[in-house]
Amino acid sequence: MNGTLKPRWQAVSVCICLAVLTWIVFGQTLWHDFINYDDPRYVYENTKITSGLSVSGIAWAFTHIHSMNWHPLTTISHMLDCQLYALRPGWHHFTNVLLHTIAVLLLFLALQQMTGAFWQSAFVAAVFAIHPLRVESVAWIAERKDVLSGVFFMLMLLAYVHYVRSPSVRRYLVVVFVLACGLMSKPMLVTLPFVLLLLDYWPLDRIRGQLRRRMLEKIPLIALSAISSVATFVAQKGAVGWTEQLPILERIDNAVVSYVLYIWQMLWPLRLAVFYPHPENRLPLWEIICSLLFLISISVVAIALRKQRPYLITGWFWYLGMLVPVIGLVQVGWQGRADRYTYLPQIGLYIAVTWAAADLTALWRHRRAIVSTAATLAVGLLSLRAWAQTSYWRDSETLFKHALAVTTNNDVAENNLGIVYLQQAKLDKAISLLQAAVNLRPDNTPAHENLAKALLQKGEVADALIHYQKLLELQPNNIEVHNIVGTVLIQHGRIREGVEEWQNVLAIQPDNGNALSNLAWIFATSPDDSLRDGAKAVQLAEDALRISGRRIPIIFRTLAAAYAETGEFSQAIQTAQQGIELANSQGNFSLATELQGNITLYQEHQPLRDPSLTHGDSELHSQ
């Protein structure tokens, strides 16, 4: 009885220590804010997410792409957070840390059950819990997909161990189900069947003479992974920095070097950043060759020692294999590498190093004291570094200042810090940073957009339009930019050019309410006879009113003006009166007063003219 209880209490004690350690490092995130990189589209600017959890929301999560990914369970988890906590960022961080803690505990239990090595399993789980490379996955709300898929990954390991110990259809179906959940959290888990095959080699020892059988056993899992891969390929096809923009040789070179850099960062986790720019063709040949030789050498050693040290095969190829989907051979985004990509792959390296250290020190005198001291020291140092790295994630300004301090040629960091200063109305700082981002990468569309906004706020309209026009060259179907450019042109007296921009919008999206109502206003009220077209104005304004659900009072003003231009003054008066009632109900009393003045004009059978459409500063509106 006591012999049974002691190991259980040991396991409980280790789990408590792992949980406490995790929260000591990452608990500070409960006081952190959202950041302006991916968090907006993943959470706080996405109305599908901020609306909370609902049946229709769940259906949307399964049938739509969210932030260039199909990961419905991750999407639903963000919806649930908004349902429970609204947009209080600390609680969203709480969920991330909680999920990471669960993944840490499950990893310890899974390794302990697979290997029977208690303390090695505890050490691997501890390093996984607090390594500084984990910070990005845990401290970044938008990386919920990492920690959520991590939980399913660990559950998969446990489910697989149970299946191996007593094979049955029911237990196998549990394995399949958990993998499906993991893939619906983050498609990076497509390599999991390969990891299970490695585990069959060591520590489960199921390969000998049965390789074909073990591979056939994985076919349903491989099929799930294939489906997920296709869905991901389709979802990310239009992503910035797509594969076709980088030559295959540059992608291969960066992949080879990144494999080695991730190992270096594991051993020396300093100068970590939220974004590492892609080196493109700037990698030195010697670095590529040395990295390739290093990878080949370690692989040869692992294979050569497969009988004496079988954990090297599992650990090393776990690392190499799990990184394949995100190593950059298929490029999505502008990054060269990312800390978050190591979340699950580096577990393989931790296993290989830990078991190798245990073997190499097996005959040492005072082994227990030396090893336990070294392990404690390693975990302590990594915890301090992780705590410091986590502190940089407290807000966008701190995060991107740090990124600029530890990287070079980082246009993403320049852009996002520029956005921070733009929001703080520090226009000169914002313009300087955003211009630097554009200079570094002329096709950086977010930088062009934000630089144009900053220049507009500073009153440098001509320069702002240059960047908007560049943005339209890069994104000719960007409706929002066409609308903005149209408004800016009109407000500065370039009426015909503004009209052309809104006509471009309607060519792309015929039911765009902004373009419909703004064009209707110009066609109805322009002092320029050659621009006015009453019948067209009525048609556009009626369409705009229908699209708005008759809930926007200023569109009633536009439609009334259009009716007046066609001579239908009684209809104009009636429509303006409806606008007054709606404006009053919404507390927009100034618009109601203005509409009453328009009615006086229509009662005198006079159409409305907007004199600002001659010299700029027109009263345009949007939905």
Topology:
Elements: H1 2-26, H2 39-44, H3 47-50, H4 55-63, H5 72-85, H6 89-115, H7 118-130, H8 135-139, H9 144-165, H10 169-183, H11 192-201, H12 211-217, H13 219-235, H14 248-267, E1 276-277, H15 285-304, H16 310-323, E2 335-337, H17 346-360, H18 367-391, H19 396-406, H20 411-423, H21 427-440, H22 445-457, H23 461-474, H24 479-491, H25 495-508, H26 513-525, H27 534-547, H28 553-565, H29 569-585, H30 589-603, H31 612-615
Antiparallel strand pairs: 1-2
Helix pairs in contact: 1-6, 1-7, 1-18, 4-5, 5-6, 5-9, 6-7, 6-9, 7-17, 7-18, 9-10, 10-13, 11-16, 14-15, 15-16, 16-17, 19-20, 20-21, 20-22, 21-22, 22-23, 23-24, 24-25, 25-26, 26-27, 26-28, 27-28, 28-29, 28-30, 29-30
Could you tell me the radius of gyration in angstroms? 30 Å
Q: List the total number of helices.
A: 31
Return the domain count.
Answer: 2
The largest sheet is: 2 strands, antiparallel
Major β-sheet strand ordering: 1-2
- Helicity range: 55-70%
Q: What percentage of the residues does DSSP assign to strands (E)?
A: under 5%
From the spread of the alpha carbons, the general shape counts as: elongated
What average pLDDT do the residues reach? 93
- Low-pLDDT stretches are none
N-to-C span = 72 Å
Number of strands: 2
Structural class: mainly alpha
